[in-house]
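Handout, page 2. Input:
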Amino acid sequence: MRSVRARAALGATVVVALALVAAGLAALLVLRANLTDQAGLQAEVAARETAGQLALDVPYDRLETGDEEDHPVQVTDEDGRVVAVSKDLEAISGTGTDRVTPQPPSAAPEKPEKPEKGDDDDDRDDDDDGAGAEPGRGEVSTDEPDFGNGTATVDGDRADYRFASVEATDSAGLTLTVHAGAPLAAEQRAVASVRAAMLAALPVVLLVVAGVTWLVTRRALRPVEGIRREMAAITASEDLSRRVPEPASGDEVARLARTTNETLTALESSVDRQRRFVADASHELRSPIASLRTQLEVGAAHPELLDVEGAVADTVRLQVLAADLLLLARLDAGERPGNARLELGALVREEVSQRTGDRIEVAVVVSEPEPGGLEVTGSRGQLARVIGNLLDNAERHAVSSVAVEVRGARGGVVVAVTDDGAGVPEAERTRIFERFVRLDDARARDDGGAGLGLAIARDVATRHGGRLTVAGAGERGARFELWLPGPR
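Output:
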């Protein structure tokens, strides 16, 4: 199933189905428990009424058990013998014994004596009714009755009942147990009705949930489909200037579209920069190659006219340019700097000491902080390249002096290179770090630079966690500051 809408609809339907089934089962269990408790209460009331009669020594054959069909009654003695049952009770289960025929008890209750002759008419009337006995001294247990489920057949009708068992003691001390039942038919009908209603409603609810989820998901994913189509069109046309539509909903899809457009903008910028880089590199390579070829062709035809020094200079310029392009390619590929610990003051002194052929002598000032205060972590070769490029740039534009200062500052090390040249206009202080960018006055005095030195220096500084900035140096000149973090 590859459709997100289908998976969402199916998932929502399954979750709702499980939730409804669980809720339905819980509701049915609660309903059944409540109705069963009500039936148990009715059975307990019936059992206590019969137990009260036994406690008053009412004869077994004269017990009033109410509606026998609604409340079947079975009375057993201490030995489990059935001593009394309700009328028309034909079978019973769930009370401990299935007998329904009364048996003589192990100790029959004592009957009250007949009143002497001469008693008033009311007493004789009471004797004739069989209810003239003196009140018995029996009692009904106040303990919580025992409950259980079973069946009973009354007058040919078999049904399920909830039985309550209550103990009673008559005046003779005989303990009897009354089992009275209450029908569970109402509980069963109610549970069956609720279950049928739930089963009938479940498919309808699930269809509604699936349909609503399908429609909502389709509406929510419609902008995503628009983004997909536009991205497919961009891929096919290779036109990175196009952008995907951004919905006005402000939700996750809108943020996805916004991020996609930002990615396309960055990709377009990167591709344009790469194209300019290739074009500029081709242009820069064309000049020394053409000059070198011309000199070699002239030398081949007229050996006496071969400009060896010019050919060597063009070759060196070509070699330096190729090295710069290779370093930029490695930086663009994400090459990580090394993890060597370097003392930046010593590295600056070493680089300055190797520049014996410069037209201007470089003054170096290194602050002497605590031991290790001028250390940084990185690639020795790349950082030496940065310092060399900054010195080349200063020497190219300086009039009479170049100074280098190394000092600790703000949790790192600062290398400041200052010259007394024409300086960098404030409007150009960001642009000069772009690749193949040379200011107009630099072009007139260029002695072989391709406009890559400062770009390489900035990229290397950034990849080492530092930064490279330029500012004015007082009334005249420029000051380039390289800040690198301390050891990590």
